[in-house]
Design brief:
239 residues, alpha/beta, Uracil-DNA Glycosylase, subunit E, 6-stranded mixed sheet, two-stranded antiparallel ribbon, 8 strands, binds iron/sulfur cluster
């Protein structure tokens, strides 16, 4: 049974395959930086996509504390060349993301100190075929990398997740229609989702190459999402 929590919240079914029970919000799972560091080391050693024939470059994808209550989940990291500061979202798309977050009340360094950043796939997938932007990871790559995301979720156990871009949004919400139907709304993870009960505030991909974002009529949806994040900040981080 799914209930709307407010006009801006709704619970939706997701189409993801449920992770093993011990990866999904098991209260017995110890949460620690040590466990997270060991997971990061395991990911750094992973070559599953290369072995499957994909370009996959390990680069900067994680940041933030294991105790984070807020988790930002992007699509895939940018190349190491475009993240010279070796921090997620430190390129041009990141500047736009942090402008939105500033409008929600967070300065960049403050937000980086409290949120955990990750992505659906943990390696840079290479440039797009048309030379614009980065290649979107295929479903096969997403599937190969999915156990790592599930383990991050189980370790961090965030109260709020901000999925960025359609690929990340669909991992948590299942298939969605036009982005304007989900950007500017808040959702709650369904019982059969990877994150039951967790608040989800989707954002569009902040890349300048995003056609959706460059349509003037979509700015109102982004502003509504910023307003929801401002509310999250007041509720969860007022101290
Ligand atoms: S994207 Fe994920 S599954 Fe693929 S090689 Fe990188 S860490 Fe491994």
């Amino acid at each position: 049974m799914r209930h709307a929590r407010s006009p801006l919240r709704r619970t939706v079914a997701v189409s993801c395959v449920a992770p093993p029970a011990d990866w999904c919000y098991n209260p017995a799972t110890p949460m620690s930086d040590t466990n997270l560091a060991s997971l990061h080391a395991e990911i750094a050693a992973c070559r599953k996509c290369n072995e499957a024939g994909f370009f996959a470059e390990h680069t900067t994808v994680f940041a933030g504390p294991a105790s984070a209550r807020l988790m930002v989940v992007g699509q895939a990291p940018a190349s190491s060349k475009s993240t010279p500061k070796r921090r997620p979202f430190s390129g041009s798309g990141g500047r736009r993301l942090f402008r939105w977050l500033r409008e929600a009340g967070w300065e960049e360094e403050e937000f980086r100190a409290l949120a955990y950043f990750t992505a659906i796939t943990k390696c840079y997938p290479g440039p797009g075929l048309n030379g614009k932007g980065d290649r979107a990871p295929t479903r096969r790559e997403q599937t190969l990398c999915r156990p790592f995301l599930d383990r991050e979720l189980a370790l961090i156990r965030p109260a709020v997740i901000v999925p960025i871009g359609r690929i990340a949004i669909e991992v948590f919400l299942g298939r969605v229609g036009p982005l304007e139907e989900v950007i500017g709304r808040e959702f709650t993870g369904a019982e059969d989702s990877p994150v039951p009960g967790v608040r989800l505030v989707p954002l569009p991909h902040p890349s300048g190459a995003s056609l959706w974002l460059n349509r003037a009529e979509n700015q109102a949806h982004v502003q509504r999402a910023v307003g929801i994040l401002a509310g999250v900040r007041m509720e969860l981080f007022r101290n």
